[in-house]
Amino acid sequence: xxxxxxxxxxxxxxxxxxxxxKALKDESRSIVSCQNLKEAREQIFLTTPSLILLxxxxxxxxxxxxVREIREKNLAYxxxxxxxxxxxxxxxxGLDIGADDYVTKxxxxxxxxxxxxTQLRKKETFTDxxxxxxxxxxxxxxxxxxxxxxVEISLSKTEQRLLKxxxxxxxxxxxxxxxxxxxxxxxxxxxxxxxxSVAIKRLRDKLNAKDYIKTVYGLGYMWVKNQ
Length: 227
Prior knowledge:
227 residues
């Protein structure tokens, strides 16, 4: 686990926030709590948090707006959303614009700790910060900058995940089931089987990569290795 890591908790329920602070604090990390978006912005954009635990419904706005701001600034801090049972649509939107995971209230603190530790480990072991250059493509996953023929392409979080899976497994056929499991890791019981086809098409079209992202009929998809 990273030493001296900082977790920013954004939660307006004072009792829950206090419980989260107590549950997540240990000798290797500090905890900063915020109860609204104004405090969260001041903390996040003036420091370098290791992880953000963010409630969606806050007294001065929607936490998803903060997710969007963070990603638009090309900041790659892991973000875990805290959601109520009636905010499934918001969770899906949050994951698509850049959140990394979510936990539904009420939740087990042990489950939350495990989710937090998983994201911190991912951050610690994230080694793909080199720029991947393939012919006319340049993919910088750390800074979330993607170009084709020198033109920067805007990709959604799902498209970024899909692209990473494809290019880091060049020449390997990735099955539809495997891609769905690894792209939509939010615990959803049902994912529209069309969602993957739509994501593949959008990624191909945005990058103009029809000669690189191949459909292997009956099996899955592959980024062609020898292009």
